[in-house]
Amino acid sequence: MRNEKYSVIGSRQPMIDSLPKATGHAQYTADLALPGMLIGKLLGSPYPHAKVLNVDTKRALSLLGVKAVVTGADILGKKYGFFKSRRDETGLARKARYIGDPVVAVAAVDEETALEALHLISVDYEELPAVFDPEEAMKQGAPLIHDEYERNIVASREFNFGDVNRGFRESDYVREDRFSSQAISHGVLEPRAALAQYDVSGKLTLWTSTQSPYFVRRDLSLVLNIPESKIRVIKPHVGGGFGGKVELGPHEVAACLLAIKTGRPVKICLTREEEISTTRLRVPMIVHAKTGVKKDGTLIAQHIKCIADGGAYASSSVLLMYNSGLTCMIPYRIPNFRYEGHMVYTNKAVSGAMRGHGANQPRFAIESQLDMIAEDLSIDPADLRLRNATQAGDTSISGLVFNSCELSKAIKESIKQTDWRKKRIQQKPYRGIGLACGGFVCGARLGGHAASGSFIQVNEDGGVTLMTGSSDIGQGSRTILAHIVAEELGLIPSDITVLSGDTETTPIDAGTFSSRVTFYAGNATLIAAQDVKTQLSEIAAYLMETNPNDIVFKDRKVFVESNPESCLSFEELAKKAESLGPGRLIIGKGYWAPTNTQFPDRKTQYGNVSGAYSFAAQVAEVEVDPETGQVNVFKLTIGDDCGQVINLLGAEGQAEGSAAMGIGHALMENIIFGDNGQIMNPSFLEYKIPTAQDVGDVCVLEVGSPDPVGPYGAKEIGEGLLISTVPAIVNAIYDAIGVRITELPVTPEKILEALEKQKRREYHASTS
Question: N or C: which end of the chain has fewer CB within 10 A?
């Protein structure tokens, strides 16, 4: 989507940090080392629910090379957590709530000594009754995992817009179904790591693989009882996050405690087993969907109930349960809508934010059920969606304002590209085609600090440095921001040095989550770049004896619009600015949060929670082997409305990564829990994720129009695309085999079992 009026925006550009990553020179947290550094290790609980009565560390401390051991007793601060109202973690537990919950940490001169020390630590526990099923955990009399939460319900959300009961009465057809979605690991290539240093002045510095340095600093301040101004958090390169690295983790708390206790730097790197078993998972969820429609497929009423398994701690439960209901109302016009959502504690590993953050599970249910309704009413699934699609200028029944929306175009272009109508009629046996839609926020409005800030400095030799608090976790946000600066100043992205993710040197930014970086940090950076441009335009106008408004920045040159031949290079202008009069320091600053949002009303829940919303339609084409049950997703066609594309190569990369993650969610990824809540497949040998061989052709159709609020009209693309991938694949599987599977993942075993049941039904029908 290249707009000719732009030089950089909409072009296809490599990431500005691609070379150091490709050559192995990029430094991740695990690569860092400091003089005198110790290695830390964590000891987790062997029980799913138990009080820690006593920790005997004498034998461990007597081992040569062991420098310190810390427990929950060493934590003198308060509990921490994503939301102030749900702070329930301390980092090292005095009451373990799942198998692997860290209770002790040790620091030693090397990893081998630290591991040996763990075996020498003796912990006395008092085992407590445990509960592992969220529906059981909600019952009266179930063991309480956190005493202050009745029936283990940590977060509840309810919406009731319109008159749902009347809507069902007025519907010509009403359908109810139950769906379930599994627990999933984020599968990041880089397991979490942290390196802490505490100096004699009382300053704590933490290098860590995180999505939100400022959240980490805030929660460290709480749990360690150290002022935020005495804590510096630095984010090196990050090897993927997908939502799981937003929050403070026990390994970060332990590394800091050990550094303070020993006076030496301490690094803790999680193993893959620890990464999967003790960090965060995508939330398993049961979704009950009831939908009423007219004979022509017009949506009249919908009632969605979600029960989410939150695991042992609250994490982002409040926002997740809100998102699960909120995002139901984005892609389609629904005049009557009710939502009930409950996040429930269980004695299992913690569930938290993951790409789509609560939207994926109900979207799978709704899009599957829409196909079921379309079949029952003999309506083409594409036509049913086109009839109900949100349009630009709409306001949802809950107050969401859609200033831009090209969902109908996304559907039409996707079905045209795939020859949808013909394939629906003439598809080969065991080949299927399926459609699904979705929508997502461009940064949800949160309480507290939610704005983004940027500083831009022009150096004397013409070099430009951008300082942003936003966090690039591999998705390419540094490149996007470099594009914005380059476009405004007539440069190319590689001319821009981007410094990010350091709480001491970059502006405050909440971090990378809720698909907010391009929208928030992009607008802040655009404002800062325009500030720089204004300052330089005044100097150029003085030198060229013209009006500042007539100055043009393009192709690394600065000139008067009417006389492009008479120009200065950007470097020359920077030098002249430095030497003009007493000299000029060219620094621009930008600070931005959307002004077109409002917090939802506490009673009615009505409100516009985001500055913009993205939309997507996806068509999946699959082939099912009836002998093995294996599914081959050989093509995914994505109609994407992310507004004006900033970097086409980056957008395509986001789409392809989203497709791979969606295939994993739909077909293979599944955390398996034992009877005692223990994760039974904590490695990539047993936990299967897609490889390049599992991902077929991905065709991306950019159909969006510029959004009036986004920078250059851009909207999010990082999370919204994934939401519709899973139901599109599941709908295609149904089209291929004629059997509907409502429990994820759709494994070969489930397909073969469903086909066998279908054969038995057909046999009994033919003989009765």
Answer: C
